[in-house]
Amino acid sequence: MPLDATPARNGTIAEVNDLSVRFVTRDRDVLVVDGVSFTLAAGEVLCLLGESGSGKTVTMRSLLRLLPPSARIGGRIDVAGHDVTAMSDRQLERLRGPVAAMVFQEPMTAFDPVFTIGTQIAETIVSHEGISYRAARARALELLELVQIPSAARRLDAYPHELSGGLRQRAMIALALSCRPALLLADEPTTALDATVQIQILLLLRQLQRDLGMATIFVTHDIGVACEVADRVAVMYGGRFVETGPIDQVIAQPAHPYTVGLLNSTVHEISRGAPLVPIPGGPPDLADMPPGCSFAPRCSAKSTRCDEIRPVLAPISAGRAVACHHPTLAGAKP
Amino acid sequence: MTGADPRDRGGPQQPLLIVDGLKKYFPLRNALGTVSAHVQAVDGIGFSIAKGETLGVVGESGCGKSTTARLLMQLIEPDAGSFVLDGDPVGRGGVTVRELRRQVQMVFQDSYASLNPRHTAAQEIAFGLRVIGKDTATAEAEARQTLRMVGLDPDLYAGRYPHEMSGGQRQRVNIARGIALNPRLLILDEAVSALDKSVQAQVLNLLDDLKQRLNLTYLFISHDLNVVHYVSDRVLVMYLGKIVEVGPVDRIWREAAHPYTRALFSSRLSMNPALRVAAPPLSGDPPNPVRPPSGCRFRTRCTLAEDVCAASEPALIPSPLDAAHAVACHIARAGSGHSLAGALANAA
Questions:
Q1: Residue A108 contacts B where some CB pair is shorter than 8 Å
Q2: Do B247 and B234 contact (CB within 8 A), yes or no?
Q3: In a 3-state reduction of DSSP, which class is residue B341?
Q4: Is B230 near chain A, with CB under 8 Å?
Q5: Which of B260, B247, B264, B271 is nearest to B314 (CA)?
Q6: A185, CA 20 to 30 Å: which among A229, A307, B125, B265?
Q7: Model confidence at B347: pLDDT above 90
Q8: Mutate which of B285, B288, B301, B302 to disrupt the A interface (most A C-beta within 10 Å)?
Q9: In whole angstroms, what is the distance from residue B190 CA to residue B223 CA?
Q10: Where are the alpha helices (DSSP H) in chain B?
Q11: Mean pLDDT lowest among A18-22, A176-180, B8-12, B96-100
Q12: Which SS3 state, helix, strand or coil, does residue B244 take?
């Protein structure tokens, strides 16, 4: 019996409440995601934006419980009305694919190198939908055409290593779409690609997302990628959401000092001739987080309150929220 | 930087490095060990680097930009090509390769893999100084001084091993190792690409500061066009082992003449949600450098390609409007046989 993949009655496809993830090993216990909450409407594109170690990938993978055994998940995760934290492994298998599917950064390692692309896609469809291999193979061909792979019929019999980086990522997307998911999770899908190929894949994902009405969560460290695809953005720092809102508003008028710093230290076309304004210091040590705001040690606007009391994510205007004692709405330009 | 550099032999007009006819083919072997084909990584390129400038190199994977850097450092042997360092030929009768390597240093992308895991930061930097004949105490003292120059407090960082530092700190150690030998040219091969944006900005500012203080010349290789635009004086665009366009950065940015350069720039992300890219400027991936297309190597992805593009290879020739700006495209050369020949030059 397949799992129901329709959004809840209020149009929500995913709801995450006070999610925490810790990685526990014999000598370390590190909290990598700390109190993250969000909802995702059907057909919406949310970007999780952050630097390495900010917890963006772990947050996204929690939705499918694709985490190593050392991970301990707390809080509540609902995907299409199913409580993911309470699912058995069998139920998870039926969740992954038909309800929510994932596109990985490195398709070369996500595909099995000893089977052809066509076999891997068809096999997935057979195992989830129980149709004949012939019918699944025909669907695989349709999928390769959907992701605009040229001479798709020939590419069905190609091994992953025989495809270029861009075509491999297209095949990866075809595999993710093979069971018609309601939610697509994309983990830095274009980071490993060249500029002229990256824009092709981003535009393809944007078009498919619209045509198929899929909700999408995009993990990226690149503000430019977020600007191209996102409806809403959640900026992560030290395992927490520090700012959320519609992408255009957050870029035009960032409220959290970290978002301001991130925009200032990103080289734009107009940067030439002026020195960059970097954020001083480095990212926080997740095993040794300050008691107050995790960004306080690098923040130029901090007060003693920031060192002592951890700010909570609070609404500042319609659709926007920020976790800061001294939010600015002055814009990115200093 | 004012004042004469005592290392300067050829005068300010003499380019620091002139490269000509540089070529490197990597053999591909089949299961029997016989050479079946060649990867044409760098195929007959020539360029010069002026003293004190930053020459940016852009291009997609497989275009030969890293191979070029490794050839300049003599880390791999070129199949053909000559180097002239400040007026003196490198090799027989001129500057030795050893001397070239001392004057040209390199910083790599992977800050972790390019440091010896068993060396502390100070040992890593002092190693090169001892190789060139300094005694241990002097080398150690200079290493500490160099750490300070790259913004790392030697009391805190001199004794740290690579795994005890962050990516940004490790890359500072790599830069310190490069500049400790007092080089004239620093090759930065994607040196800031793996760093987080907030740290990348710190390192870019550091590189700018060091360049002024140490009278350095940079060869800056990156796939990030915004970063290249920010740091470079001149830009060199490569495609499948060839130079397709080279010129002053503002000219390349405003009036790029090669269809590939223009497509590459239009592929940049908008950084503005209201101005999203509507259609991809190019389709497909770069072709395989084992079997590059005949004639112009870009013709298979070029929307303007005609018969002449397959028949003959366009030479890199200076623009009639600006001699510093050179393009390898049949459209840019009047009388090449392309129906649009000369049209772009007039439009610009």
A1: no
A2: yes
A3: coil
A4: yes
A5: B260
A6: B265
A7: no
A8: B285
A9: 7
A10: 65-72, 97-103, 121-131, 136-149, 154-157, 167-180, 197-214, 225-231, 249-255, 259-266, 307-311, 343-347
A11: B8-12
A12: strand
Q: What is the pLDDT of residue B197?
A: 87
d(CA A228, CA A234): 15
Q: In residues, how long is chain B?
A: 348
Whether residues A262 and B197 touch (CB distance < 8 A) is answered with yes
Residue B316's nearest CA partner among B308, B324, B326, B325 is B326
Average pLDDT, chain B: 91
Query: What is the rounded distance in angstroms from the CA atom of residue A60 to the CA atom of residue A104?
Result: 12
Tell me which residue has tokens 């989830």: A128
Q: Please, which residues 25-54 of chain A have a Cβ atom closer than 8 Å to chain B?
A: 51-52
d(CA A105, CA A90): 26
* B1: pLDDT strictly greater than 60: no
**Looking at this predicted complex, what is its ipTM?**
0.84
CA distance B289 to A333: 44
Q: Enumerate the residues of chain B whose CB falls inside 8 A of the CB of residue A220.
A: none
For the stretch A287-303, pLDDT in tens is: 889 999 999 999 988 89
> b or e along A182-216 (b: 16 or more beta carbons within 10 Å of the residue's beta carbon)?
bbbbbbbbbebbbbbbbbbbbbbbbebbeeeebbb
Structural domains in chain B plus CATH codes:
17-238 (3.40.50.300), 265-271+281-347 (no CATH)
Could you tell me the two tokens for B158?
């001199």
Full DSSP string of A33-83: EEEEEEEEETT-EEEEE--TTSSHHHHHHHTTT---TTEEEEEEEEETTEE
State the smallest CA–CA distance between residue B151 and chain A in angstroms.
11
User: At residue B104, what are phi and psi to the nearest 5 degrees?
Assistant: -120, 120
What is the pLDDT, as a whole number, of residue B23?
A: 96
Angstrom distance (rounded) from CA B178 to CA B250: 29
Percentage of chain B exceeding pLDDT 90: 70
Q: CA–CA separation, B310 vs A164, rounded Å?
A: 23
Where along chain A do its domains lie?
255-334
